[in-house]
Each structure stands twice: as C-alpha cells, then as structure tokens.
Amino acid sequence: MKFFRLLTPFLLTIVAVLCFAPAAWAFCGFYVAKADTKLYNKASQVVIARDDEHTVLTMANDFQGEVKDFAIVVPVPTVLQKEQVRVTEPKIIERLDAFSAPRLVEYFDSDPCAVTDSVNLPAAAPRSRAVSQEAEKTSDRSLGVTVEARFNVGEYDIVILSAKESGGLETWLKRNGYKIPRGAKQLLKPYIRSSMKFFVAKVNLDKFEKSGYQFLRPLQISYQSPKFMLPIRLGMINATTEQDLIVYILSPQGQAEITNYRTVKIPSNTNIPLFVKDEFGEFYKSMFQTVYTKEDRKVGFLEYAWDMSSCDPCSADPLTQEELKQAGVFWLDDNSGSNLPASPSFRRPSPKNNVFISRLHVRYSRDKFPEDLIFQQTANSESFQGRYVLQHPFQGELKCQAGREYKQSLPKRFEQEAQTLAKLTNWNIQDIRNKMKLSIGDLTYPWWENLLSWLGLY
Question: Cβ atoms within 10 A of the Cβ of 28, count?
C-alpha cells in the first residue's frame, strides 16, 4: 500500500523528503543568529509568487520515509498541463528561509565618558517604507472520476483528476494503491463542490534511481485563478499534533496577509539578556508558543516583510535574480512570464522589477483553523522583521560624572531585560536572574562587583 498524504492547492503539510530598497532601518548592530525552520520538528514550507491572478506555487517536502511510499494529492483550481509543472531545488526554499528568519542582533555601548556626536543605541522600530507526452484521458463512469491529464516531470509521475463526488474519488485512489486516511471523504466534498481538480503525484522509482538525487525535490506548479488561498483542511487529516506552516509570499506590491484569520506581527525589537545568545533557538520557540497561546491559537504571525533587494541586518544575502526566478518570480523585466505555461488562456502580466517578501507563520490544529487560509496582497511596503537585541554594557573604567550616571542606570536596565524575557517566554524570573548573574560575573572589571551587589546577585 502506498502511503498517502492529502495536501492543498497552496500546500500545507507538504509531503516529505528522505532527509530533507526599502525605508532605512538605521541599524548599527551585528547579526548574531537566526530562528529558521530547523527549530521545528514538523514544519511545512510553501512559496507563493503571485501577481494579479497568476500564481507560481512551490511545495517543499517534510515527509520522512521510503521514497516508494511518497505520494501527495493537492487540490488545484484548474486542470494543469505538463508545462505548468516542474521540479526545483531545495536550496531555493532554504535560501528564502535563511533570508527571512527572525534574528538576534547585538550592540556594544560606547564609553559614556567619551565626547561623541552620537551614541550607538538600538534603532527604533523600522519606519515605513499542451502535454509533450499525450495524456491518456479515461473515465470510470461508475465512480465519477475522470483522468484529465497524465504525465511525468522529473522523478514524479503525475495525474490530474476531476471527480463528481468524494466517495468515488476515495474509491479511485484506493483502487490505484493509495491508502486514504480516515475522514478524507468528508473533507474532499467542499473541493469537489467548488469544481476543483486534484493534482496527484508519486515517485517514479526508476527515474529517481537514475537521477542520482538523494532527496525528493520540491514540486512547483503554475496556474491562473482569482483564488488566492491555501486549503489546510486536508492537511490536517494526517496531523496528530499541532503543525507549523511557513508561507513565503513573493509579490511586486507589498505585504501579504491572511484575511479570514487575524494576521499579527510577532513580538519584535526588544532588548533581552546577554545569555540568550547561547539559547536563541529555545528562546524563540518559547516566545512563539507564549504569544500563540495568548492569541487563542488562531492567528497567523508575520515574521518578516521586506523588499527583496536589501536587508538590514542580513541573516543571509538577498536572493539573486536567477534565484528569484527559480523561486517562481515571473514578472521581472528579464524573465517576464518565463515561469508561466505557454498557454493562450494565460494573460501575461506587465514586467516589473520589485519583489517584496512576506513570511507568515501559522501553527494550526483541527479545532482552531476550521477554514482554509485566504490571502490578499496589499500596497503596504513597510519593513518589518522579528528582531531581538543584546545590548553589551561598556566594560572600561568610568571616572566621569556621565560614567557614574551610566553605572547607576544599569541595574534598572538589566532588571527590565529580565522582566521582558520572562514576559515573552513565561520562563521563571529567578532562573533568568541567576543566568544573568553568571553572564555578568564573567566580566573582569572591578566595578562590576558593585553592580552585581546593586542587583542583589553578588
């Protein structure tokens, strides 16, 4: 029996791998670490490049198991032909993840006794700114299922199905070697009522072995539809726990947002204790869970929004035009329409130069996300990123009045950092203070002993 996983037109729990110039930020710090998708055990990733009604969707894989057991079913709005489907490299999604991941940065206080024109303090929140292989079309009238197209792309055998009722589709899939999860029949009904088609892909083992690839590559599909959505209900069939979904939306306009659930910015631009530098992954996971729970587990979080031509601070280099093309961007001057199928039904968009990325993070479960995700593009080009600041105190001798005032201000600052961290993560405040004691105690300057005493830590 084939292992079967139901997915969505704009992908959810994507099936699996074997191993697998905006407004100024006025930033003066240094990038230290990032919180990418490697933090999560079960994280699906989807890239959606969309302009007008044209969509290029790239589906990353998170399935772990035998290649022979890989299979997906994705509802799609139209019948796809071979030229609308291709495979791409996992590296492109890894690049988008690294570029847009929430990040940790650090600053170093200047000598308060030195006369300078400006002090290096943390920046404020950002300011705005025709099938080659003839398809065999057959119909099983007793089931109401029609094979609209059948073709091979790379290491995948693909079938496009239409169906009149969910029971017939379920039976067809079972007859063809797919093990259907319990509950699939009911969840298939609304997609059939909406006249959606079903993109079914499985691995061609001979082609995979000959290819020499160690991984199953992401699938990328192109289509034209007024629907800008990500059906997640089918993906929940296989889910036993909460699932993390990262959606990278690429647009020539501005930020993208979810319309049928609230889109909330992740907490950002806060100062946290120095010891978090060694625990940033755990910090971010705890913080995300805390705010996710606070929002009653039914919102989408904006983790990053920025023009793709720059970044500040950069956790990875911006993608090149060739990489953007591989990610599905089809509207740039030098490759306008190159990722769209050569079909007369497709109206070509006008070439543009801008690419804006929105990184949306949804943690979903059956009870909190009963509806498929609906997106919209906006003209909001304000820059945003999940950014967390380490502020290193000045460690030299301080003999001036300004230096004495600076020393007196530090206990309050450190306590505020501790309180902020406790509030963001629900970590125990005394444990935080103890860890701060250890990190501060590593400093060798004599006056720190007095500071630790003020803090009640020495």
Answer: 15
What is the per-residue pLDDT for 179?
66
Quote the DSSP letter at residue 135.
Answer: P
Least confident window among 3-17, 73-87, 176-190, 404-418: 3-17
Higher pLDDT, 115 or 129: 115
Flag whether pLDDT at 446 surpasses 70. no
Q: What's this model's pTM, rounded to 2 decimal places? A: 0.82
**Which has the higher per-residue pLDDT, 99 or 212?**
99
Rounded Cα gap, residues 100 and 83, in angstroms: 30
Cβ atoms < 10 Å from Cβ of 65: 12
CA pair distance 165, 191, nearest whole angstrom: 10
195 burial (CB, 10 Å; 0-12 / 13-18 / 19+) is exposed
Q: For the residues 65-89, what does the mean pLDDT come to?
A: 87
**Short-list 154, 133, 153, CA closest to 212:** 154
Any idea of the CA torsion for 201, 216, 244, 58, to the nearest 10 degrees?
-70
Give the residue carrying structure tokens 């593009």: 377
Contacts of 53 (CB under 8 A, 6+ apart): 224, 225, 226
Strands 243-251 and 356-364: antiparallel
Cα four-point dihedral sign 390, 396, 400, 401: positive
- Rounded to 5 degrees, φ, ψ at 324 are -60, -40
Q: How many other β-carbons are positioned within 10 Å of the β-carbon of residue 319?
A: 22
Sheet holding 71-76, edge to edge: 5-6, 71-76, 197-203, 156-163, 145-153, 139-140
What pLDDT, on a 0 to 100 scale, did the predictor assign at position 212?
A: 75
Q: Whole-angstrom Cα distance, residue 376 to residue 226?
A: 11
Using only C-alpha atoms, what is the Rg of the chain?
26
CB-CB contact of 310 with 21 (8 Å): yes
Helix (H) or strand (E) holding 49: strand 43-51
**pLDDT recorded at residue 334:** 60
* 85 token code pair: 């489907």
- Could you give the angle at the alpha carbon of 316 between the alpha carbons of 255 and 354, nearest 5°? 35
Q: Give the residue carrying structure tokens 């057959």.
A: 138
> In the numeric block, which tokens belong to residue 278?
């060694």
Asked if omega into 313 is within 30° of 0 (cis), the reply is: yes
Output 205 or 295, whichever has higher pLDDT.
Answer: 295
DSSP-derived secondary structure letter, 421: H
